[in-house]
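// run 5 | inverse folding | seed 20
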């Protein structure tokens, strides 16, 4: 039985909902900034209100309060940074730096043989660290994790020059374009890489095997 379909990985990792919600406050910030005469304060208020509304909707849907509060606090922090520096483009600074940190963390996890894709999927499936005792699965997670490194590197490459040139409208637009659409592509590609990297006959990422069991690496 093979259970490494791309669709199962997309479903497991949550699809587009969270990433889509995260792209709305930046768009609201840019809209408020434009409508109220390039006022950073107005853009910040609109963005925070948008984040609060999204947080309330998530909470009503039954999502964890901690995740809801964190998402709102990130919007507030981004707004405060822009207000403090007086540079409208700095609203996107947290997003830029978080992508730099994420790219380094995912690449580092591969180098340390603790690929973060395996950590995330193993945790969601309640496997703890069993997947690391499966050499074939460990290698497959390492290969598939490079798709996530690429996702973050692409965002950094796009956002950095726009931030340096204070291209606020483009920052807001591409922040949305490179949120859930790119994340869905990343999950699909990592699912494909995971499937390709596993040897024939392997039961899939839901069924890790000890090194003494079953098929090993090619």
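// decoded
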């Amino acid at each position: 039985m093979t259970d490494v379909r791309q669709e199962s990985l997309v479903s497991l990792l949550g699809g587009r909902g969270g990433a889509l919600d995260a792209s709305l406050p930046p768009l609201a910030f840019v809209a408020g900034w434009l409508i109220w005469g390039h006022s950073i304060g107005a853009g910040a208020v609109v963005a925070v209100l948008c984040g609060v509304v999204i947080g309330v909707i998530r909470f009503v849907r039954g999502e964890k309060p901690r995740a809801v509060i964190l998402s709102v606090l990130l919007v507030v922090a981004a707004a405060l940074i822009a207000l403090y520096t007086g540079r409208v483009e700095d609203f996107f600074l947290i997003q830029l730096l978080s992508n730099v940190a994420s790219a380094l963390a995912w690449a580092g996890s591969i180098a340390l043989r603790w690929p973060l894709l395996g950590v995330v999927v193993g945790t969601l499936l309640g496997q703890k660290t069993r997947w690391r005792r499966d050499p074939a699965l460990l290698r497959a997670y390492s290969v598939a994790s490079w798709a996530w490194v690429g996702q973050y590197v692409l965002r950094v490459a796009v956002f950095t020059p726009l931030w340096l040139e204070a291209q606020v409208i483009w920052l807001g637009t591409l922040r949305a374009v490179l949120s859930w659409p790119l994340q869905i592509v990343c999950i699909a590609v990592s699912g494909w890489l995971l499937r390709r990297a596993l040897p024939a006959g392997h039961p899939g990422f839901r069924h890790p095997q000890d090194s003494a069991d079953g098929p090993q690496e090619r």
